[in-house]
Amino acid sequence: xxxxxxxxxxxxxxxxxxxxxxxxxxxxxxxxxxxxxxxxxxxxxxxxxxxxxxxxxxxxxxxxxxxxxxxxxxxxxxxxxxxxxxxxxxxxxxxxxxxxxxxxxxxxxxxxxxxxxxxxxxxxxxxxxxxxxxxxxxxxxxxxxxxxxxxxxxxxxxxxxxxxxxxxxxxxxxxx
Length: 176
What we know:
- 32% of the residues lie in helices and 12% in strands.
- α3 (115-135) links the parallel β2 and β3.
- The chain is an alpha+beta fold and 176 residues long.
- It has a four-stranded mixed β-sheet with strand order 1-4-2-3.
- α2 (85-97) packs across α3 (115-135).
- It has helices at 2-17, 85-97, 115-135, 160-166, and strands spanning 70-72, 103-108, 143-149, 168-173.
- It has a domain at 65-173: CATH 3.30.1330.60.
């Protein structure tokens, strides 16, 4: 009789310690995060979220003009070329509609000219883009213009193709 009573008590205790299955989740609703899942190594894992429609950040979408960040200039010039205006417009409209975003515009020059001349030319290129973005609705507090002069060439050759690549202003968004 004692053996039976002890056995029944043990079975009752084991049954009380057994885990209960999670409550069912209604279809279409995310699972309750109150009991976050824990992996085998003890780290908390994040639930898989439903797809947000596959939208990419327009700044990172290769099909969007905003993914292009360099505005090119003619030799010894600092006015925004007509073929670069659409790109400047796209960045200006984006900044105007996203006042929390900011950019640093880095002006660059090719290796021809003195160091001082190229610093000044890079600054003028950056300022030209800054002014164009401002006209398009970007706030002054969103814009910073700096010059790299010839110090950050993208192409290292000594030919016209390399010079063309290095005559530019780069639009760098905060956090990049």
